[in-house]
């Protein structure tokens, strides 16, 4: 199973890797990339995207912050894990 925490030496992730981590489809990850919501680099040919693990973590943190702002909550993601 791919994971940014399970493989600390891995810097770049493919779209399928990101889809697995986020439990979503490759098409949804591609849409996030193409909309500019998830930072990426393009390697070689068309749609050969790579997402740096740190950028995925930033995206996740941003999504938590947006969800907290919508709900009026100020708790961190770790607070809800108890």
UniProtKB/TrEMBL annotation:
Q: Organism's domain of life?
A: Bacteria
Q: Where is the Helix-turn-helix domain?
A: 12-62
GO MF annotation, one: DNA binding
Residues in a coiled coil are none
Q: Name one Pfam family in it.
A: HTH_17
Which protein, by its recorded name, is this? Helix-turn-helix domain-containing protein
